[in-house]
Design goal:
Elements: H1 2-7, H2 16-31, E1 35-44, E2 50-60, E3 67-73, H3 98-113, E4 119-125, H4 148-155, E5 166-171, E6 180-182, H5 184-189, H6 191-203, E7 210-214, H7 221-229, E8 233-237, H8 264-279
Helix pairs in contact: 3-8, 4-7, 6-8
Length: about 280
């Protein structure tokens, strides 16, 4: 699933690769038995560009009022602004984007084979990674340049008055040496969800991958989902706190974010953990 997404090319809004991948994602969710909603919208990027976004949502047991929300962003960074070369070219986004989506597509396949007892919404948010590049000085409020698709959805949910018991975000979950610390924004908005997910990972034998040490608060889709839509969410994200400088790893927002860094075992451990939580929340 990760390789298929990368094969389209960079999934940057307003491009042919973006459109082709969107169609494939919607068809894949439908193939796995989901009720699919493609939420189209427009958002203004930091530089004034109007982005034509598509949030792609697959719902299982849509009639159920007891729901769990699983989400990831599917777009890719339009610049390699942390690289030393080709900084103004888009990246493959194998880890940053495709890994979380790939895990959730496999969860969709599993839910089609053996349905869960609760309603599940798998959401692929668009335009998460279109924030201003590092060569432009940030100003107050610049964090709102990011996560445009989840902000749009939170203000315009695909189902009126949508509610979920909790949400889990998957972002950058495919690197071979990934360690998932408890992310600071998640601990602020959803400590009970973080405890649930990390305990389940430990029970499954993945305690070395899911570390209880906390990261600083970060801005990701799981900030806007609880802040604007009121749904407590935990972020499973590869944010490295035992290196200097702290951050998302040496390949983040560079051309090194390609298939060579993706590890099947990492993807599997994340997917098994999340699916276990869905089946026994």
């Amino acid at each position: 699933y990760v390789a298929k997404q990368v094969s389209f090319g960079p999934r940057v809004p307003n491009t042919d690769a973006h459109e082709a991948c969107a169609n494939w994602l919607a068809a894949e969710l439908a193939r796995h038995g989901a009720e699919v909603t493609v939420q189209e919208g427009r958002a203004r990027a930091f530089d004034g560009t109007i982005l034509h976004m598509k949030n792609i949502i697959g719902s299982y047991h849509p009639e159920s009022r007891d729901r769990i929300m699983l989400y990831a962003h599917w777009d890719t960074r339009p610049f390699a602004d942390k690289d030393s070369t080709r900084q103004r070219e888009p990246i493959d986004g194998a880890n940053d984007g495709a890994s979380g989506v790939g895990v959730l597509l496999e969860i969709a396949r599993q839910l089609h084979a053996v349905p869960a007892d609760v309603g599940v919404d798998i959401m692929f948010f668009d335009a998460e990674d279109y924030g201003r590049p590092q060569w432009i000085e940030s100003t107050d409020g610049s964090f709102q340049d990011w996560c445009l698709g989840s902000q749009f959805w939170a203000q315009n949910p695909h189902v009126p008055r949508y509610r979920a018991r909790f949400g889990i975000l998957l972002d950058m979950v495919g690197a071979q040496d990934a360690v998932f610390h408890q992310e600071g924004t998640s601990l602020r908005y959803a400590p009970h969800v973080v405890r649930k997910v990390w305990k389940r990972a430990a029970d499954l034998g993945f305690g070395n991958r899911f570390d209880a040490e906390a990261t600083p608060p970060t801005i990701d889709d799981n900030y806007f989902v609880p802040e604007m839509a009121g749904i407590p969410s935990a972020n499973i994200v590869d944010y490295r706190i035992r290196v200097r400088p702290m951050g998302y790893g040496p390949f983040h927002h560079t051309h090194a974010d390609n298939l060579s860094i993706i590890d099947k075992e990492t993807l599997a451990q994340v997917g098994i953990t999340v699916l276990s939580v869905v089946r026994q929340p």
